[in-house]
Write a structure and sequence with these properties.
mainly alpha; Rossmann fold; 3 domains
Length: 152
């Protein structure tokens, strides 16, 4: 297991970790990308509204093992781009890792990257613009804008 990052609990984690865990500390973005591209899986235990890091891991073709709450429910497709576990406990996380070890050989890096592309900035901007344009067209065709213009 490779742990990247630092924080107030780093020393405590290092003291309690076994010798099969490597702590790399803070890493540059390029180093993070390299690590994610070489990883067999990315473990994500946080709960966030969106959570960009799991999407970044999938953009590298890496499956994600994540706690199934928050934004990962929208971004990680269970059994396709990763594995979701239901309880934020050591046991449930270990169960997800064991499932990945057992079933993880079937993941396609190409398909995971393609799935991650659904959340790209360009796609978001295009879909947002299309939604605004459609809303305007619906409003314009309803005639309500002509009423608003006449009243002013």
């Amino acid at each position: 297991l490779v742990v990247i990052g630092d924080g107030p609990d780093l020393a405590k984690l290092q003291d309690s970790a076994g010798n099969n865990i490597e702590f790399l500390g803070f890493q540059s973005f390029d180093s993070l990308v390299d690590c994610m591209q070489r990883a067999r899986a990315f473990v994500y235990a946080a709960v966030e509204d969106f959570g960009i890091v799991p999407v970044e891991a999938m953009a590298c073709g890496t499956p994600v093992i994540a706690f199934g709450k928050g934004g990962v429910l929208e971004t990680v497709k269970n059994g396709f781009s990763g594995i979701l576990y239901q309880e934020q406990t050591d046991e449930d996380l270990m169960g997800a890792i064991i499932r990945f070890e057992t079933d993880g050989v079937g993941y396609s890096s190409r398909e995971i990257r393609s799935h991650a592309a659904r959340f790209s900035k360009v796609r978001f901007q295009e879909e947002f613009l299309n939604m605004v344009q459609k809303s305007w067209n619906d409003f314009d065709q309803s005639g309500r804008n002509q009423t608003a213009i006449k009243e002013n």
